[in-house]
From TrEMBL:
<dbReference type="InterPro" id="IPR023352">
    <property type="entry name" value="MAPEG-like_dom_sf"/>
</dbReference>
<protein>
    <submittedName>
        <fullName>MAPEG family protein</fullName>
    </submittedName>
</protein>
<dbReference type="InterPro" id="IPR001129">
    <property type="entry name" value="Membr-assoc_MAPEG"/>
</dbReference>
<keyword id="KW-1133">Transmembrane helix</keyword>
<keyword id="KW-0472">Membrane</keyword>
<dbReference type="Pfam" id="PF01124">
    <property type="entry name" value="MAPEG"/>
</dbReference>
<keyword id="KW-0812">Transmembrane</keyword>
Length: 130
């Protein structure tokens, strides 16, 4: 049986970030008494999009992490890539609130794109035995 510790840790971190993003949506829902939908509230819309964006991007990153880990077990850089991705996603979530930390949205977006690009290139280089 192959155990993928980096993938498992990345998936656990993703679950924690998703729960955190969910709680942030719930906090706005509770404060503004919005049970269904977004009520046209821009704060709630921003938080919902932060979570949706996380859900849109994280599966492909986890698949790429698992594929690279299967091919190159024990690579210390892979855990770093996973950690940077998760930190970027937290930054994106915080940045979606705007204000003085709004720049983190762009940082998180760039981190996500670079992570996907890097993992994709890494996966192709493994496949082509480079």
């Amino acid at each position: 049986m192959t155990i993928l510790p980096i993938t498992l840790c990345a998936a656990a971190a993703a679950a924690a970030v998703n729960i955190w993003l969910s709680i942030r949506c719930g906090m706005v829902r509770t404060a503004k008494k919005i049970s269904i939908g977004d009520g046209g509230d821009m704060d709630l819309i921003a938080r919902m999009r932060a979570q949706a964006n996380f859900v849109e991007n994280t599966p492909i990153v986890l698949v790429l992490i698992a594929a690279v880990e299967l091919a190159r077990t024990g690579n210390p850089y892979l855990m770093g890539v996973a950690a940077v991705f998760m930190l970027g996603r937290v930054g994106h979530g915080i940045g979606m609130d705007g204000g003085p930390l709004g720049f983190l949205r762009g940082v998180g977006t760039l981190t996500t794109m670079l992570t996907q690009l890097g993992l994709g290139v890494w996966a192709v280089s493994i496949a082509l035995d480079m």
